[in-house]
Amino acid sequence: MTKIKIIIASDSVGETAELVAKACISQFQSCEMTSDILRYPYIETKENIEEVIAVAKESDSMIIYTLVKPEIREYMKALVEMHNIQSVDIMGPIMTTMEQVYQQAPLNEPGVVHKLDADYFKKIEAMEFAVKYDDGKDPKGLPKADIVLIGVSRTSKTPISQYLAHKRYKVMNVPIVPEVAPPEMLFKIDPKKCVALKISPEKLNAIRKERLKQLGLSDSARYANDKRIQEELDYFNQVVHKIGCPVLDVSEKAIEETANNIIQIIEHKDSFFN
After folding, report:
1. What phi-psi label fits residue 36: left (phi over 0), alpha (psi between -120 and 50 degrees) or beta?
2. How far apart are CA 138 and CA 119, in angstroms?
3. Which candidate, 30, 28, 27, 50, places its Cα nearest to that of 40?
4. Phi and psi angles of residue 75, each rounded to the nearest 5 degrees, phi first
5. 212 DSSP β-pair partners
6. In degrees to the nearest 10, what's the CA dihedral of 50, 55, 60, 63?
7. Are the CB atoms for 146 and 171 separated by under 8 Å?
8. What are phi and psi of 32, to 5 degrees?
9. At residue 76, what are phi and psi to the nearest 5 degrees?
């Protein structure tokens, strides 16, 4: 039985090279072959390269490497040729071609892809947060949130929260209803991370009537009654005054515009409070 011996050498964790190696090995399953894969991550110096070369010679292994720093990559290339070791440079040729095509120098910075992965997981975490703490479900989310949105029903709190989650903000939204006292924690958190969504009575009336029609209900229901709407907005103003947070009028704004305005408010919070 033939055994494939592979050393993975990388200036990051080495996942890319190992995945490629395993994908290639899988294409030889019809043969009598097994494999040993040894990973050498975080290669930063020429001494690290020399250690890999020594192990490869002793174990008669091939080397598959992903090294983005040119001087380290060139040193590896020189040594494998000197010692006649079978090797594959995965990233070097691709990066060279891209540099020529796009007329742009690469960063030559190890581990950037994992920074991107971390960014992706941060977005997923924010999206899960928005769902978990939607509509004021759990007051425990208030201290954990990056942004807290408050507003009466039908001010697009939920879709705005989801949009902001895609921008990696953890957002909790709290509905303001006269019959239900807001959670006490709402008045204890930093008002700089809270944004109140204001809407005109006329716009809210139109939105609510349309919503009732979609549900097959009469648009004369109390939910869309002018008096009821004014009661809710008056109570909303009382809550906003008590918190002392920024107010954003969303009457004529699209969700994307509102979300971007919220980001501007949050990122420049000091200017609002000074």
Report:
1. beta
2. 26
3. 50
4. -70, -40
5. none
6. -60
7. yes
8. -80, 85
9. -60, -45
Residue 89: closest CA among 230, 81, 160, 204: 81
List the structure tokens of 82.
Answer: 């000197």
CA atoms of 219 and 239, how far apart (whole Å): 28
Entry pTM = 0.61
Dihedral (Cα; 236, 240, 246, 248), 10-degree rounding: 10
Q: What is the mean pLDDT of each run of 10 residues along the chain (274 residues)?
A: 84 88 81 76 92 94 94 95 96 91 85 70 90 92 97 96 94 96 96 97 95 87 93 97 97 94 86 56
The amino acid sitting at 154 is R
Within a 10 A sphere around the Cβ of 184, how many other Cβ atoms?
9
Q: C-alpha dihedral over 274, 234, 155, 200, to 10 degrees?
A: -90
Contact 199, 249 (CB under 8 A): yes
Report which of 66, 116, 63, 64 is spatially closest to residue 91, judged by C-alpha positions. 66
**34 beta partners:** 3
Distance separating alpha carbons of residues 252 and 266, to the nearest angstrom: 21
Which pLDDT score is estimated for 203?
A: 96
Number of Cβ atoms within 10 Å of the Cβ of 193: 20
- In what helix (H) or strand (E) does residue 7 lie, and over which residues does it extend? strand 2-10
Residue type, 237: N
Q: How far is CA 119 from the centre of its chain?
A: 4
62-66, strands of its sheet edge to edge: 33-40, 2-10, 62-66, 87-89
How remote is the C-alpha of 84 from its chain's centroid? 44
> What is the structure's pLDDT at 14?
87
Are the beta carbons of 195 and 262 closer than 8 angstroms?
A: yes
